[in-house]
Amino acid sequence: MALVNFVFLITRLVILIKYKKDESIFILKNLVACLFLASYPANYKNNSTWYLTSLSYAPSVFVWLILAFCKKAKLRWLFLTWGLYVLGLVVSTAVVFANVGDILDKEKFLGPNVLKMVLCITPLLLLLLLNTAEDVKDHKELVPSLCFQMAVDLFDAVEIIDIVLEEREHSYGIPKGFGDTMVVLACISFLLSPWQMAENDLEKDKLRRRTAKWRYIVEMIVENLAFLVIRSVIVFKYKKDESIFIAKNGIAFVLGVMGIRSLKN
Fold first, then answer.
1. What is the pLDDT of residue 9?
2. Which of 70, 73, 149, 201, by CA, is between 20 and 30 Å from 180?
3. How confident is the model at residue 6 (pLDDT cuts 50, 70, 90)?
């Protein structure tokens, strides 16, 4: 652990000195997220081998380092970096819930609340990553749009996981299988986020209409409709207020329909 922290500290200093930028914050936040998530099974299972799950983030860090040192950190390559990061996030999240999800102790430091905060780093990492692209000024309209849409969807998925964590604390009566389904859908939602990037052809500066159409359809069904149904069940059957995100999912579903219609014109 000390060696890993030392390596990343040196990396940060090199980038700060050589490039005069604070892009290394992406790596530091990435490091915080991956080590904290790996700490859950390692701590609860009392087995440091679980720290190896943090290696699921290694590809995204490796690619980002290459791009940073070669000064090739353009937006289209950062899309790849984000996709690799999301894969690591899904793996580590699945490991946490599959192994210690039922035994999280709110009295411990590594409890449900810290897990929520760690997962909330994800949208912040997205904003940081996209806005440190070397060609961000060439995509002044696209980057803010992507940041807003993707960050909202990421928070939506994190909030679904938050419902599961709150059930562990307050016992609303939500069945374990239902909670597991919510975690799976949240992970799928994470995996969908790079799709929003992929629908943009940066070289030709245009939208890939077919890719966008299928992204709308899948997102409407897997994310917004599924989350809307889940939250409706949570509200009416288990009496937990989810009205704000129900409204978000409903609005997003309607916007998805409108988006598909606009692609046909």
1. 45
2. 149
3. very low
Helix (H) and strand (E) counts for the chain? 11, 2
Q: What percent of the chain has pLDDT over 70?
A: 88
pLDDT average, residue stretch 126-133:
82
Name the one residue in this structure whose structure tokens are 């353009």.
74
- Which amino acid would we find at residue 208? R
Q: Give the containing element (helix H, strand E) for 220.
A: none
- The DSSP secondary-structure symbol of 46 reads T
CA distances to 45, 175, 192, 209, 247 from 79, in Å: 35, 37, 12, 18, 29
Would you say residue 170 has pLDDT above 90? no
Distance CA 113, CA 23 (A): 28
pLDDT band at 187 (very low <50, low <70, confident <90, very high): very high
CA distance 202 to 131: 15
b or e along 105-136 (b: 16 or more beta carbons within 10 Å of the residue's beta carbon)? eeeeebbbebbeebbebbbebbbbbbebbbeb
Which 8-state DSSP code applies to residue 201? E
- Is the separation of the CB atoms in 28 and 125 below 8 Å? no
**Would you state the structure tokens that stand for residue 163, as one six-digit string?**
């419902």
Which residue did the predictor score with more confidence, 15 or 164?
164
Residue 63 and residue 233: Cα distance in Å, rounded?
41
